[in-house]
Amino acid sequence: MQIIFGTRVLQFALQAAIPLTLGAMCGILCERSGILNVGIEGMMLVGAFTAFLAMTATRHWSLPASLGLSVMVTLLAGWLFGFLHAFFCIFLRLNQILSGVALIIFAQGATTHFLDRNFLDVGSFANAPIPLLSEIPVIGALLFDKPPLTYTALLSVLVLGFALNRTRWGLRTRAVGENPRAVESAGINVRHLQYLNISIGGALAALGGGYLVLEAAGQFQQGITAGRGFISLAAVILGNWSPLGALGAALLFGYTQAIPKELLTVQESLLPSQFISMLPYVVTIITVSIFMGRVRPPAALGHS
Amino acid sequence: MSLYKPESRIPVLEVLNCTKVFQGEAVNLDISFALSSGEILSVLGENGAGKSTLLKIIYGLHKATEGEIVVRGHRLQAHSPRDAIAEGIGIVPQYSQLIPTMTVAENIVLGQEKVKGPRLNVSVAAKEILKLARQCNWEIEPNQLTAELSYADQIRVEVVRALYRNAELLILDEPTSFLTPQESDSLFEVLRKLAAQGMGIIFLTPKLKEAMAIANRILVLRRGRAVGFALPDQTSESELTSLMLGRGIAPPINKEMFTSARFPVLEIKHVDVLGVKGRFAVNDLTLSVNAGEVVGILGTPDNGQTELLQAITGMRRPQTGNLLLSGRDITRASPRQIAQRGNCGYVPEDRREFGLVEAFSVTENYLLKMNNQPPFSWFGMLRPRQNKRQALRLSQELNLQVRGSDQAGGRLSSGDQQRLVMARESSHSPKLLVVAEPTRGVDVESAEFIHAQITQMRNQGTAVLLVSYDLDEIINLADRIAVMFEGRLIDLLPSSQADRNRLGLLMAGHPG
Question: Could you tell me which residues of chain B have a Cβ less than 8 Å from any Cβ in chain A?
Fold first, then answer.
């Protein structure tokens, strides 16, 4: 019991959930605008690599300045990569799945090819406790004594949730995902909106990749994203294309990754370790298959 | 062209020499007319005459190949719907474009949202919507999801949306297709009221009677050309028909009495069918169809007709009740068993989705159903040359506008597609023919062909179950009329006793 609900497990669950959350926000932005995005994995990888490049290029600067610049550059790179996906899907009318796959392959190739193995370790963000809130027992340490990108990710969920449901931009975005032709006859430029949303999505996914380098690991490895982009996509579906739902799904997936890690370090389990390592995947399959029939994708997703 | 525009009034809209060419084919050719404020102009033409294209050009959804649109003296060139809305043009499209997952208010304000800071200001919009609806004597609930609206309400919401955007010119594309006669009449009343307040209205319709009833002036389109103007009180139905079709009205359908003994072919006994939305779409329905008769199922869309037909053809399993075809229980049979062993033909409502494979050739589409039987195949192998010859002969018989039997089904006109499906489904003189919406979107000639085919099948002893939203089609073809409302059969009457008024009330769920 202590292991399953211990602070350490929850800490790790949150840490694992952050990149998934950012990736899922990217998925929501694209798919609520009617454009499929299976390339989140590629966007995250590009983000992680750009963050690493920016860190090594500015390694003589002070750490905070270097980190700040890296975040900016990561967001910019993600924006451009997202724009590229939009360009493929909207202007060139390329198959949306193919475009996503192309982004992943490109990202994997480029980040391997240009990787300079002399500089793998870079610095990372330190915790930034929020005054007062961080002193609340248990919750304080869990939620309010974190590095800045974690706050940013959680904030992005709230902002996106509000924006989608309460603002003019959100109304139009939701409408585009359901019936772009109706939106066009309402006198709205559907393509501009899609370009904008997918670019923002790219920036958020890249930040998810950047998080791995700048906050979680402090270093870059080849293939550092390790399928997180795909799990983000599962979180989008499980969360029924809503930001808060996707956050919940990301936390669930993060938690299932944390449990086996913890059980294996404690080493008093009754089950063989292979079964415990299976846990995240089994839980993903079971939850997705239970909820698959109950969620409803945007009606116009993948058309055009 | 003397009626090009009424004298002594300033036109709201002028369409000048408008031409639209799609893939080398002119769907609008040199159309010119003017509309003044307070006038109702009916644009009359059969399916495919170019009415909807004209609407899309005026509204900026299509760019005209040639010609000009002038609104109150402003020339619109390469304009978008946004410009059209700014010029006060509103449309009610043929197929509702309301987004079902959003509320009435959200649908109406889309594109013209009122905001308070970053937030949408829903309450102000809702108040204005209620005010506009009240002007039309309509009850609209702004916070209702549009998925729950009836067709009549959807049309109302579309009209209110145009009013919300301050439209001074309203174009309606066949708005009455799914309405009962009473609902149409009440829509006409509102349109007349709006016109009296100065709104210019263009009413697109394929129905003569409607055009005569609503319009101040009628413009007739035939194959993309404006073939003439008429004033309702100075013209006759026969004059309009010959303008519209280039020929006279077809002779009435010859319904012979089927003389052999009447026995039931299809028996539906207390059937409940679960619908897509998890609710019962068909409730305790009992009906039988005899050999040599056409039973017409009448009702506005979404009252369980689709689900009932899916149950009969094996595509959806009923929850309770029984279905008998020629005395054999088919409640749990597969579509293939029903089609082949039960010898049932099925012309589905959505021909592009269920009727044919658009990427397949005419030959392959013709083979879709009976491909495992002689003469089409031989010991499990298709006989390509034989089949091609067969399909070629068929397309000549049907007079399809095809370039050979290799042409893809998706490239056929909708009339030809429907002829092909109809021919395939009736080629084995089936015991039961299930037909849904056979002439929706189909040109008049194909519609007449299909109607004649249905009647001929009936005269040869086939039991026909016909679902249509078109009251006139049902009255003309059916021997008995079953009216469905909210999944129930609310009345069953012989067509000799049917009058439009009573049927309209029944369709709206008021049992006589």
Answer: 59, 61, 80-86, 91, 93, 97-102, 106, 109-113, 115, 118-120
